[in-house]
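Whiteboard transcription, Tuesday session. T.W. wrote the structure tokens on the left side:
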């Protein structure tokens, strides 16, 4: 995974196949680490080792007001739970915005920490995950198996 931070917090966490730090965020990248990245690495390790069910990482959410609203609402989906795109649209107060919510979920640059993988199709299907549906399935299974540990 590739991570990025600003002086405000983590702004990007992407899977190895792509990086949007320079192209989408229009930031110049530098190799190295920051206090935010070190904190992120530690908490991701704990998450994947089934020792953590939530993150308390400082984030720098870079997006439109609507995107930021959707991303903040994603943080309210409980660990090990899922929500449909329709339920997510209702949660942000606009049932008619289902497609816009799905688009905002897809623009989430900090997956796992902002758990867009917890949003599924109305029929229960795994849909729309920039990291690949196999990763979405893996993350949901990781969380469902971990619930009984806490």
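and on the right, the sequence the group agreed on:
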């Amino acid at each position: 995974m590739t991570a990025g931070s600003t002086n405000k917090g983590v702004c990007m966490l992407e899977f190895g196949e792509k990086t949007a730090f320079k192209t989408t965020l229009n930031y110049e990248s530098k190799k190295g680490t920051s206090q935010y990245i070190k904190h992120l690495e530690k908490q991701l390790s704990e998450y994947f080792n089934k020792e953590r069910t939530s993150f308390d990482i400082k984030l720098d959410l870079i997006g439109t007001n609507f995107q930021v609203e959707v991303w903040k609402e994603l943080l309210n989906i409980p660990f090990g739970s899922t929500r449909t795109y329709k339920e997510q649209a209702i949660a942000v107060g606009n049932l008619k915005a289902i497609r816009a919510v799905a688009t905002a979920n897809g623009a989430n640059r900090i997956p796992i920490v902002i758990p867009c993988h917890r949003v599924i199709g109305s029929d229960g299907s795994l849909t729309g995950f920039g990291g690949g549906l196999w990763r979405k399935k893996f993350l949901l299974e990781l969380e469902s198996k971990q619930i009984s540990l806490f």
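Someone added at the bottom: The chain has two domains: 2-48, 65-149.
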